[in-house]
Amino acid sequence: MEVLDRYESIVDDFEAFTAACERPLPSAVRVNTIKTTVERARAALDAEDVAYDPVDWYPGLLKLPDDQPGTNWPYFHGWIYGQEEVSAVPAEVLAPEPGERVWDACAAPGSKTSQLAALMDDEGVVVATDSNLGRLSALRSNAERLGVTNVAVTHEDARNHSLKPFDGAEYDRALVDVPCSCEGTIRKNPDALDDWEYDHVKGISGVQKGVLRRAVQATRAGGTVVYSTCTFAPEENEAVLDYVLDAEDCRLVDFEIPLDSVPGITEWPGGEDGAGGADGAGSDESDDGPREFDPSVEKAKRIYPHLNDTGGFFCAKLEVEG
Amino acid sequence: MSRESTRFDRVPATDAERPDDDSEQVTREEILVFWEDRYGVPRSVFADHTFWERGAGKIWIFRGDAPSPVDIEGLGMTFLRTRQEHWKPTTDAVQRFGGHADQRVIHLDDDQAATFVAGEDQEITDWDGDWGYLVVTHDLVGESEPMGVGLYLYGELRSQVPKGRQREL
Ligand SMILES: C[S@@+](CC[C@H](N)C(=O)[O-])C[C@H]1O[C@@H](n2cnc3c(N)ncnc32)[C@H](O)[C@@H]1O
To answer: Which of A53, A194, A203, A208 is disulfide-compatible with A178, CB 3.0–4.6 A?
Structure first.
C-alpha cells in the first residue's frame, strides 16, 4: 500500500482512506433501459434469487453483495451490465440528450458508451473511439448485447481523432475517460498497484492531455466535455486540467453529484513520494517539483473510497468557449 | 489474420437505386419486406434506422444516418445475414426487435429455453408452423421475451446462439 502514502498530505482522514482501499468492493450492475425497465430487471433478479441493493442516487444501479453479474437470465437478455457505482458518475455529469452527437474518446469496453446511449434513449449518435482493437471488439459485443444501435465505433488514437467519417460534424458533448494508473480500482483489483511506476504516471499524463485537448477541439462552442479517471494522482487529474485550460478555449464549470466528494487540489508537492521533487532543476511542466494549479481546478471532484464506500474516482466538467 | 473490411455502404432504398453491376445487392425495401412478411414486424419499427452493408451480405442497423460509404470499425449493430438463400437475423437483432414479431415465433418452456441458450439442439414435436429461421421466445417475469434465432428442421430446433452468448442457466 506504500504507493498511496504519497497522498497523505492531500487526503483528510488518511487512515479511513487506506482502510477503505483495503476492503474488497462488491460487484454492481446497471439496468439497461434500452431493453427493459428497472422494475422488470429487478423482478427478473428476484425470480433467480439474486440479492441486490439499489443505489439511492441512480435508478437501476444495483449492488450485488453475493453474486457476479454474468450468469442469469436478465444478463443474457442484455437487461443488466456489470458496472461499478462511481463508474456511473461521468455519464450522468455529461448528461447527453436524445438526438445529440456525443464522442466517447476512450470508450472500450463500453460501460459508459452504453450508459450514454441509454441516457439518449438510443437516439442521436455516440462515436466510440479506442486505440485497442481487442478491447473494441469487447465494446462491440457489449453494445450489441445491450441492443445499442446509435453507436459508431472508430479505431484510432484519440489524440488524432478524425471527424472525417461524419463529414466534419462537431460534437455537442464529449466524455474523456482516459487510460490512467487506476489507483482507485484497488478495491476491485488488489494487484492494481503492483506495477505502479512514477514514470508511468508522468508518461500517461501526456496521453491524457492530448486526448482531452482533442476533445475540446472537436466539441462545438458552448458544448460540454467531461474528464474522468479512476486514479488519485494529481499528475493525471488537476495537472491535465491545468494544461488544457491553458492550451484551449475552455473553462471548468461547477456541477453537483449525489456522492460525497472533495474539491480538486490547487497545490501538490510533487515527486514520487508526494513530498516534493528532489530534482531542483525541474521546470513546472516536468511534474516533478511542487505545482500550483489554476484555481478553478477546485471545481473538479475527487471521490475517495472512504467517502461513499466506492472505488476511487476523479471527475471534472468543462465548457467549450469561443 | 486478415482484418474485416471497415467500409460500410448504405443499403439502397429500392431496386431503382440498385447498382447495375450487382443484381444481388439487397435493398432497404427487401429488408423491410423480409421482417414484415416472415415475422410480422411492422416496417414502422425501423423508421428511424438506416441499413448498411459491410463485406458481402452482412447488414448492420444504425439509428440515424451517416455519409456513405463510411470507413469505420462499427456502425450500430449487426442485424441480418443476406446474399444467401435463407436470410438469417442475428441473435442481438432478434433480442432487440423480435418482440414485435407475431409469425414464425416459437415459444419455449423453461427447460427448453435453458437448452436453447446453452447452444444445444433439441427435438420439438409440436411445432406445426414453417421451417427455417424462427424467433425463439420464452417467459421472463410474466412476459414473452425473444432470446434469439433457432433453425427449425425435421422436428428439431437448432440453437443459433453464438458461442460467446451461450450460457448454462
Ligand atoms: C479507463 S479505460 C476506458 C473505460 C471505458 N470508458 C468504459 O467505461 O468502459 C481507457 C481506455 O483508453 C484506451 N486508450 C489508451 N490510449 C488511448 C489513445 N491514445 N486513444 C484512444 N484510446 C486509448 C484503452 O485501450 C482503454 O480501453
So the answer is: A208
**Closest to B140 (Cβ–Cβ): which among A44, A151, A166?**
A44
Instruction: Find, in chain B, the residue whose alpha carbon is nearest to that of A151.
Output: B76
Active site residue A230: yes
Predicted confidence (pLDDT) per residue in B90-143, tens digit:
999 999 999 999 999 999 999 999 999 999 999 999 999 999 999 999 999 999
**Shortest-distance Cα residue to atom 10 of ligand 1:** A179
Can you read off the three cell numbers belonging to residue B64?
440515424
Place of cell 409440436: B126
Nearest Cα neighbor of A180 from A237, A131, A117, A224 is A237
Task: Kindly report the average pLDDT of chain A as a whole number.
Answer: 94
Q: Which residues line ligand 1 (CB under 6 A)?
A: A 106-112, 129-132, 135, 157-159, 177, 179, 207, 211
Contact B97, B63 (CB under 8 A): no
> Which are the contacts of B2, defined by CB distance < 8 A and separation ≥ 6?
none
Distance between CA B166 and CA B32 in Å, rounded? Answer: 28
pLDDT exceeds cutoff 50 at A14: yes
pLDDT tens for residues A198-242?
999 999 999 999 999 999 999 999 999 999 999 999 999 999 999
Rounded to two decimals, what is the model's pTM? 0.96
Confidence bin at A279 (pLDDT 50/70/90): low
Tell me the β-bridge partners of A82: A29
d(CA A148, CA A114): 7
Contact map slice: A 112-141 vs B, CB within 8 A: 122-125, 136, 140-141
CB A62 within 8 A of CB A51: no
CA–CA dist B104, B152 (Å, integer): 10
